[in-house]
Design brief:
The complex is a heterodimer. Chain A has helices spanning 3-30, 47-71, 73-80, 83-113, 123-145, 149-165, 179-194, 224-228, and one strand at residues 218-219. By secondary structure, chain A is mostly helical. Chain A has a single domain (12-212), classed as Fumarate Reductase Cytochrome B subunit (Up-down Bundle). Chain B has a domain at 359-476: nitrate reductase domain fold, CATH 1.10.3650. In chain B, strand 3 (66-69) and strand 4 form a beta hairpin. The longest helix of chain B has 22 residues, at 420-441. The chains are: A mainly alpha, B alpha+beta. At the A-B interface, helix 2, strand 1 and helix 8 of A face helix 3, strand 8 and helix 24 of B.
Chain lengths: 242, 516
């Protein structure tokens, strides 16, 4: 295993995961005002549809696909044992990838051709666009050229990812994979690493709680009845800052 | 019964002169910041007119508020299913052009211009891009333009009115308009709160003020769609939504909100209402024609011993109950039944009530013979040759209500979900007060006639005097009955008083810097 492989497959993942964890926790706790999806629909509300919708729905399914292959590799292999099912999986995954790429390109064009958006765009946005476009392109390239990704992901990459999380990286099988796959792995970890320092942070604050919370929210500073009662000891009703 | 207290407001539209002082007071304090330039938490519209943002009342366009389907209410353009499936692209989000592109002028060009043949000019520049723009729209662009084809004729409140009825409003000699100042209604059934996927928006239990937690807002921008009054605004710079906070820092210090404090016409009243929170959902779900009545039923009598007992049980402070008993809002809304909520059909149960305007409604233009008057005048006096009279007399009493120049239907579409009888009832009361006071001050109306008038309007002479006093002569403390915030407790809400000195304080400790 040479230095390049070692860096991409061992060092980078740990650095990325560490920055991801530390950065996210820091930003969420100490820079809460800066946690936002920074939507620009308010300044440009037409072209966004053709970028945001295909990109987001594409990445939702692509992300879930990778996650399922990571969590249930045997399930994926069992599903793929029938050629028709394999084709359904591969073709739909490829379509979602195309949808992502089209969305990203539309978003990129929109952001850099709409004059108003220049004033809500920073260098990190550019970095994210380039990274995501390259990553999506690499993913599509791999899916097209090295078939069938869903099967060999489950047999090769899942054990590798598990080994990373077990702090015992096992790269012997991965080093033999083509360069494009290694770049795709590197890209994924770079994206994870810069996530807390970009607008991608909104991925961590998905409003899932909305699904089960009641519609109306009333907040009381405290329970006045309890506080007023002489029977309530102070230790039970500590103010919020303590 | 679940008694809670709510800071509510009454705007007396007959007194509004449309000066926009309220808007400026608010702007100077709260929204004079980057990304917030276009926001007017308080704005004043000319009605009939399209308003700000353009045609905000037309929910076919903006999909705001609640709608009733199969006996249940749901958000029209947001909610759990619609909100989350449209989270990547909100099809009903107003964009900046629906409000206006904020602008300033390059004043420095006037000072630094080299000597030329022409006058230097201060060109308008966009506050977003900094580039020169042609101003096409402003927050009060339809000011005083009632009758104009672009604004008044596109007013969404003409729904249900025939073309002839509408045309009548625009005849030059009949044309009328009034001003409609608007702030956040701090609703009891707020659509913005219900629509927020992050749960950043909440209603304060203690006083009912609806607020957006700037640290929890994630720019999913559903509140902008959901609020049917379009009083939640997206700050394009910080990526957070903002709205009227009812100047709660001022109120907690016992001061009136800036818009109300600065009101030149003294049209604004603020005070506490006690209401039964257990009825909110049922009240918002009744049929459209019953909406106002059931909203009134939710409001509780602060003198009722049972209500006071339940309020105390819920932890409502004695000072708040006392403020509720002195509340000008309770008098206008519940006791005298003079004020109505704006667009109750949006089903958010707004807590800002309006006394419908009577002045533009009553007056008519009549042909008259001026010769007798002119003969009385000195020969060198300037004489007028017009033969018309702007007549505001109320000789015919209620007869005039059917001949008014402002179609009842229009006012009813604004304040009573189309119920014309309800508006008539309020106008009768307003006119009865005037007729009664005319008798008291001028004395040219017979006792019998005044008695008939008051009986028809369902009020006593004492009541008419009280309405007159609170309408025309109120002092600051009578207009704004602000309950104590109990800051001695408020500090304990936030800080542990056992902490030593040198504590960093509470609230946002970091600068509101845009995210990366």
């Amino acid at each position: 295993m040479n230095l390049f492989d070692n860096f991409i497959l061992v060092v980078l993942p740990y650095v990325a995961i560490a920055t991801f964890l530390i950065g996210s926790i820091y930003r969420y706790t100490s820079r809460k005002f800066q946690v936002s999806s920074l939507s620009s629909q308010f300044l440009e509300g037409k072209k966004l549809f053709y970028g945001s919708v295909p990109f987001h729905w594409g990445i939702v399914f692509i992300f879930l696909g990778h996650l399922i292959a990571f969590l249930f590799p045997r399930g994926v292999l069992a599903w793929n044992s029938q050629p028709v099912r394999l084709m359904i999986l591969e073709i739909s995954a490829f379509m979602f990838g195309i949808s992502m790429l089209v969305g990203l390109i539309n978003l990129f064009i929109r952001r850099y051709t709409t004059p108003r958006l220049r004033y809500v765009t920073n260098y990190m946005d550019f970095a994210i666009y380039v990274l995501l476009i390259l990553q999506t392109f690499a993913g599509l390239w791999i899916a097209y050229n090295y078939r069938w990704g869903s099967s060999w992901f489950s047999t090769l990459l899942t054990p590798y990812l598990y080994s990373i999380f077990k702090f015992n990286p096992e790269t012997s099988a991965i080093v033999l994979l083509p360069l494009m796959v290694k770049l795709h792995i590197a890209g994924a970890f770079i994206i994870i690493g810069i996530l807390p320092f970009s607008r991608l942070i909104h991925l961590l604050v998905l409003p899932l709680n909305y699904i089960w919370r009641p519609y109306q929210q009333v907040m009381w500073y405290w329970d006045k009845n309890k506080v007023r009662s002489h029977k309530t000891p102070w230790s039970l009703q500590r103010p919020k800052n303590t | 019964m679940d008694v809670r207290s709510q800071i509510a407001m009454v705007f007396h539209l007959d007194k509004c002169i449309g000066c926009h002082t309220c808007s400026i007071a608010c702007k100077n304090i709260w929204t004079d910041r980057k990304g917030a330039e276009y926001m007017w938490w308080n704005n004043v519209e000319t009605k009939p007119g399209t308003g700000y943002p353009t045609k905000w009342e037309d929910q076919e366009i903006y999909k705001g508020g609640w709608e009733k389907r199969n006996d249940k209410i749901q958000l029209m353009g947001a909610g759990k299913r619609r909100g989350l499936t449209n989270i990547f692209y909100n099809p009903n989000l107003p964009v900046i052009d629906d409000y206006y592109e904020p602008f300033t002028y390059k004043y420095l060009d006037l000072i630094e211009s080299p000597e030329t043949d022409d006058q230097p000019t201060a060109r308008p520049v966009s506050l977003i891009t900094g580039q020169p723009i042609d101003i096409k729209m402003g927050p009060n662009w339809d000011d005083d333009l009632s009758g104009s084809p672009d604004y008044a004729r596109n007013d969404p409140n003409f729904k249900g009115m025939t073309a002839e009825e509408q045309e009548v409003m625009f005849q030059l000699e009949k044309m009328a308009f009034f001003y409609l100042p608007r702030i956040c209604n701090h609703c009891l059934n707020p659509a913005c709160v219900a629509s927020c996927p992050s749960g950043a928006i909440y209603k304060r239990g203690e006083d009912g003020v609806v607020l957006i937690n700037q640290e929890v807002c994630r720019a999913w921008r559903m509140c902008v769609t959901a609020c049917p009054y379009k009083k939640s605004y997206y700050n394009w710079h910080t990526g957070k939504s903002e709205k009227c906070i009812l100047c709660y820092p001022r109120m907690e210090a016992g001061l009136a909100p800036a818009c109300m404090h600065s009101c030149v016409g003294r049209i604004r009243y603020l005070g506490v209402l006690l209401y039964d929170a257990s009825k909110i959902e049922a009240t918002a779900s009744v049929d459209e024609k019953d909406l106002i009545n059931s909203q009134m039923d939710m409001l509780l009598d602060p003198f009722d011993e049972n209500v006071i007992r339940e309020a105390k049980k819920n932890g409502v402070a004695d000072s708040t109950i006392h403020a509720a008993q002195n509340s000008p809002i309770y008098k206008f809304v519940k006791e005298w039944k003079l004020a109505l909520p704006l667009h109750p059909e949006f089903r958010t149960l707004p807590m800002l009530f309006y006394v419908p305007p009577l002045l533009p409604v009553m007056a008519t233009v009549k042909k008259t013979d001026n010769t007798e008057q002119q003969d009385k005048m000195h020969p060198i006096a300037k004489k007028w040759e017009d033969n018309w009279l702007y007549d505001t007399s109320t000789e015919e009493l209620w007869g005039t209500l059917d001949q008014i120049r402002f179609p009842l239907k229009y006012i009813a579409n604004l304040f009573s979900a189309g119920d014309e009888e309800l508006i008539k009832e309020k106008w009768k009361k307003l006119m009865a007060v005037r007729i009664h006071r005319r008798k008291v001050t001028v004395g040219d109306i017979s006792d019998e006639k005044v008695a008939t008038t008051l009986r028809d309007a369902g009020m006593t002479a004492e009541e008419a005097d009280a309405i007159y006093a609170l309408t025309s002569l109120p002092k600051f403390e009578e207009r704004f009955v602000i309950p104590a915030a109990h800051r001695e407790q408020a500090i304990e809400m936030m800080d542990f008083t056992g902490d030593t000195k040198g504590d960093a304080g509470f609230g946002i400790k970091t600068k509101p810097v845009r995210g990366i």
